[in-house]
Amino acid sequence: MKSFTKMCKLDAFKPFANHEMATDTLKSLQNGEMTPFLTDFVETYFPTGKKNTHLAVQDTRLAVLFNTNMGITCKNNDAIQELFRGIRYHFDVFLKQNEDTDGIKLSEACLG
User: Fold this and answer.
1) Percent of the chain surpassing pLDDT 90
2) At what angle do helices 36-45 and 19-30 cross, to 10 degrees?
3) Phi/psi at 56 (nearest 5 deg)?
4) Which of 63, 68, 82, 85 is the most buried (most CB within 10 A)?
5) What digits encode the pLDDT tens for the residues 2-43?
6) Cβ contact 57:76 at 8 Å
7) pLDDT tens digits along 57-86
8) What are the two backbone dihedrals, phi and then psi, of residue 74, each rounded to the nearest 5 degrees?
């Protein structure tokens, strides 16, 4: 865990307000549409104006949406896939370390 947290840290986390919002967001993304929730999150937390800044994404369709709608260059390759695997594995630790996630129960967040 120590070596992974040296490489990665959780800078931002914003849970969905409820299950309906999560479902609506997923349906919109599946239909190739950005949602205000996702747009707001990325505009708030993604650094703009920096050279060679890319957004790592797992889904190539999502990468196209970010590029088309927001002009953000995304990366998706084997290294990114491994990065996301590590994030999923250590996600509960990241939540515990982030002050903005107090009171969030991972078991409840995974209900769907």
Assistant:
1) 31
2) 90
3) -85, 125
4) 63
5) 677 778 877 888 888 888 998 999 999 889 899 999 999 999
6) yes
7) 998 888 999 999 998 999 999 999 998 998
8) -115, 155
